[in-house]
């Protein structure tokens, strides 16, 4: 049997994050309830196979979504509930299945989101999905193999090829804070020469029209691997969120005084 679950956590800046996953009850059990608690504890302890998306969160709250007969069926329901969660909680705050990176390519994400519009039942959603042209990463997720290299025996977070893959960033990506067409709200800069890789975002400087804010930097920690890049990206996105709210509040105060 496979358990499909969701976990809610809060970042140190107070933003809620949601993660949807699946696991074998026999491996994490012996009961579904025990499997849920054990898997959540594994995420909290940053154990093998834990979600990078939750690593800046505390106070993780797990909940069981469903129990299905097999692992492959669990992977289908995991994607189904991930897309439903993106609709209900916001796609910038929800990750799961193979859609677990900080930055997601909007071009391949948009058709998947459309399959889960209007909260369809699982059979209706599955029919919509089978009519899509499926990406390699989606096929690999449904097959239970690593969605980076397509091989079995390891998770994508421990893929031996991960250090050779380009890190998502730039125009056309969905970030933890925003998705385009807000260009370069948060963006990634690869390391060059003596400068390590880093994430940038624009800091608010008030309400003066046309005046740009200062570019702020969140540096990536050594050894500059994919995990460190993702964690720094999540922090930059969180800080950018705070700046956006600050600008909104500033515009609101100005309107009230006028």
Q: What is the mean predicted local confidence, pLDDT?
A: 78
Q: How many domains would you count in the coordinates?
A: 2
- The counted number of beta strands is 9
**What share of the residues does DSSP label as strand, in percent?**
15-25%
What Rg do the Cα atoms give? 19 Å
N- to C-terminal distance: 62 Å
Concise description?
By secondary structure, the protein is of the alpha+beta class.
Question: What do these coordinates show?
Answer:
The protein has 258 residues and is of the alpha+beta class. The protein folds into two domains: 163 residues, no CATH class; 72 residues. Helix content is 37%, strand content 20%. The protein has seven helices and nine strands, in the order E-E-H-H-E-H-E-E-H-H-H-E-E-E-E-H. The strands form three sheets. The protein has a four-stranded mixed beta sheet with strand order 3-1-2-4. A three-stranded antiparallel beta sheet has the order 7-8-9. The chain has a two-stranded antiparallel sheet with strand order 5-6. A hairpin with an 8-residue loop joins strand 7 and strand 8. The longest helix has 32 residues. The N and C termini lie far apart (62 Å).
Question: What descriptors fit this protein?
Answer:
258 residues; alpha+beta; 4-stranded mixed β-sheet; 9 strands; globular
